[in-house]
Amino acid sequence: xxxxxxRRSPRYLGVSLACVLVNMLLxxxxxxxxxxxxxxxxxxxxxxxxxxxxxHVHVTYTIEPTVPAFLRYAGVTLxxxxxxxxLLLLIHDRGGIDMVVAAPLVTLIMFFWNFLAxxxxxxxxxxxxx
Length: 130
Description:
The protein is mainly α.
């Protein structure tokens, strides 16, 4: 299973970068339209969760999409914002590490969290992939 996941890591990176780009464009665009940041984050999540799921099942892992996999993936993805906020709180606010270091560190931690948790969410309960 680990080999299966690692062989797909370049595809995962490509899909993740595409999703980050869409997220940035949405957040910036909705801000320019006068949306609050909270509403923009919710709108982005509503679009990106199904989009990222579809891209990961069809591009990254080339597996059949299932409702249980989508629900696991959505659950994993929904915790990203509070987890990232908590990490920044611990590392930057409480830990005293400058934001120039803290923000990339949190981004890196979240990238690995998403890779591991997303892989579990999409692949749990499946026959051993090749």
